[in-house]
Write a structure and sequence with these properties.
By secondary structure, this protein is α/β, with parallel strands linked by helices. The chain has two domains: 3-112 and 286-303, 3-Layer(aba) Sandwich (Rossmann fold), CATH 3.40.50.2000; 124-282, Glycogen Phosphorylase B (Rossmann fold). It has helices at residues 13-24, 52-57, 74-81, 92-99, 124-131, 161-174, 188-196, 209-218, 233-241, 253-256, 275-282, 287-303; strands at 3-5, 29-30, 38-41, 59-63, 86-89, 105-108, 138-142, 178-183, 201-204, 221-224, 245-248, 262-263. A six-stranded parallel sheet has the order 2-1-3-4-5-6, sandwiched between helices. The longest helix has 17 residues, at 287-303. The chain starts with a strand and ends with a helix.
Length: 304
């Protein structure tokens, strides 16, 4: 059995997952689609880069992460669907959405999280000193992009940066010790508004995993404010690092976080972090176990 995994190259979690899967399955992965038995379309918007003759002659697995039905092209989906043998999703919510669109088999396997990368750092005082924060600072984090496209101005509304801004404005109004930590690219929408409203922040644009884990461990609270999500992976990374987190009920949030940690819209005061609940559900998503689950899925497709 040989698997062809198409490339994304978007500096996104899918790039990391692809790299780690290839490293764990060196004997199964081929870089030439012609030599493959199974094509894994890990990013559905890239499927047209694969010649139709191979989509017709090979087994095809396609991953979907979320559906924005306000901006959904059903004809385009149906065009791809005719070539797909099985779909892969990472959350129950996406599976439910996908079941409305196709009668093909759907397998739900969350992406893994590396326990050697994300973990709790207990000496918070030393860590905060390293990054120039005091123990009295109330640090609120958001580590995903917030702008749409190349203009770096228009908010990516599915990610909810406008909601995040409203939430931290309210927090800062009540507590001047609130400071925001941002990471990742395309954070200009929030940065521009933080400057406008004089909300203190620090932005760590692109950091390695060591620094990212330290940033999680600095936080008093991580806030997911998305309207639509596939993951986000930050939920399980917070879970492993025991970072207090609240989230809108998107993606895997309802599967990892306690119900009490979920909120609607900008009603964040109704949500309370439950660190142990998030940790207990995240600790099961080991790389070793989940990659094995992917192997099982591919083996079943290959044999049937």
């Amino acid at each position: 059995m040989k698997i062809f995994l198409n490339k994304v190259k978007e500096d996104w979690i899918i790039d990391r997952v692809s790299h780690e899967f290839r490293a764990s399955a060196k004997n199964l992965v081929t870089r030439r689609v012609v030599n493959s038995d199974i094509i894994w379309i890990i990013a559905p918007w890239t499927w047209k880069k694969i010649p139709i003759k191979y989509l017709k002659s090979k087994k095809v697995v396609c991953s979907y992460y979320h559906f924005d039905f306000s901006n959904f092209n059903e004809d385009e989906f149906n065009l791809l669907d005719q070539y797909v043998d099985e779909y892969h999703v990472i959350s129950k919510k996406t599976k439910q959405d996908l079941e409305k669109l196709t009668n093909k088999r759907i397998t739900n396997i969350p992406f893994w999280v590396d326990h050697e990368i994300f973990f709790e750092i207990k000496d918070k005082i030393t860590l905060r000193t390293k990054y120039g924060f005091s123990n009295s600072d109330f640090l609120v984090g958001s580590f995903q992009r917030d702008t749409e496209g190349k203009d770096l101005l228009s908010p990516k509304l599915v990610k909810g940066p406008d909601r995040f801004l409203e939430i931290v404005q309210d927090m800062y109004k009540k507590d001047k010790n609130v400071k925001i930590i941002l990471s990742g690219r395309r954070r200009q929408y929030l940065i521009n508004n933080f400057k406008k409203y004089n909300i203190p922040y620090k932005h760590y644009e692109m950091v390695d995993f060591t620094v990212l884990n330290e940033l999680y461990n600095l936080l008093n609270l991580y806030v997911v404010s998305s309207r639509i999500e596939g993951g986000p992976q930050a939920i399980v990374e917070c879970g492993l690092s025991k970072t207090p987190i609240i989230s809108t009920d998107v993606g895997v949030a309802g599967e990892i976080l306690s119900e009490s940690s979920l909120y609607s819209g900008v009603d964040y005061l109704s949500a309370k972090p439950n660190i142990e609940h998030a940790y207990k559900n995240s600790i099961n998503l080991t790389k070793e176990n989940n990659i094995k689950n992917f192997f099982k899925m591919f083996e079943m497709i290959y044999e049937n």
